[in-house]
Amino acid sequence: MALQFLKLPILYRYCSNGNATSSSFFLLSRSYPSSFTVRWVKPEMNCSFRSFAVAGAGKFQVPKKKRRLDEICLERFQQYSRTLIQSWILQGKVFVDGKMVNKAGTPVSNKAVVEISAEIPKYVCRAGYKLEAAIEQLGVDVTGKVALDSGLSTGGFTDCLLQHGASFVYGVDVGYGQVADKIRRDERVCVVERTNLRYLSELPQKVDLVTLDLSFISILLVMPAVVNVMKEDATLITLVKPQFEARRSQRKHF
């Protein structure tokens, strides 16, 4: 088969040793079979560009795509939050093909076997245990109630409410993208993100129970909006954070 030399426009200076002054280069081309492999080869002369060789045998080898370990874990273990998964990785409780990996950004093949050797938590995040303690100590009956979880975040409070029998939960948060997939995909949950509770005008229905776990804002500022969506005999459970309730002159004590 005849070889063809094609003169192409300037891209790089051909050589830097002064032996060749032409600012163009030549491409050796020919017809190749549909299946081929590509490998890089080091040029023998001192040139400012790389060259490559094409082999006619074998199939084209596409590099296996790898992804971050925490991303693969989130995809395969959707019931857990990103924070929890990253915590397990740092603790050395995640294994890839039988080997412990403790860096969340480690590139991992999509075909790798990923295992988590950790105690499975009851809720999607630790916040659920805080609300559980309040429900038990205050004797609050959640069964069949429609609730509003203000300060949804990952969804720990919402998870706790559902496991204690709540029929439906509206989760409101000023942020977005933090809710665990387990909560986001639950048909009993309506996630309302990018919404400041202070300016919440209404909900599709009045609620029987409200939980508040807010930061960087006083509870007093959101109460008008909260009362507006509560039934007359509704229950309010709030987590009080003194640093956000005290006056500016008093905050140095916290």
Based on the model shown, name its key terms.
7 helices; alpha/beta; 22% helix; 3 domains; elongated; 254 residues; Rossmann fold; 24% strand; three-stranded antiparallel β-sheet; Structural Genomics Hypothetical 15.5 Kd Protein In mrcA-pckA Intergenic Region, Chain A; five-stranded parallel β-sheet
- Cα-atom radius of gyration: 30 Å
Broad CATH class of the largest domain: Alpha Beta
Q: What count of helical segments does DSSP give?
A: 7
Question: Can you tell me the residue ranges where pLDDT is under 50 for at least 5 consecutive residues?
Answer: 3-32, 47-57
Task: Give the mean pLDDT.
Answer: 79
What CATH calls the topology of the largest domain is Rossmann fold
Structure description:
22% of the residues lie in helices and 24% in strands. It folds into 3 domains: 1-62, no CATH class; 66-116, Roll (Structural Genomics Hypothetical 15.5 Kd Protein In mrcA-pckA Intergenic Region, Chain A); 127-245, 3-Layer(aba) Sandwich (Rossmann fold). α1 (69-76) packs across α2 (82-90). Strands 12-11-10-13-14 form a 5-stranded parallel sheet, with helices on both faces. With 254 residues, it is α/β, with parallel strands linked by helices. Pfam families: FtsJ, S4. Keywords: RNA-binding. Residues 67-132 form the RNA-binding S4 domain. InterPro entries: Hemolysin_A/TlyA, RNA_MeTrfase_FtsJ_dom, S4_RNA-bd, S4_RNA-bd_sf, SAM-dependent_MTases_sf, TlyA.
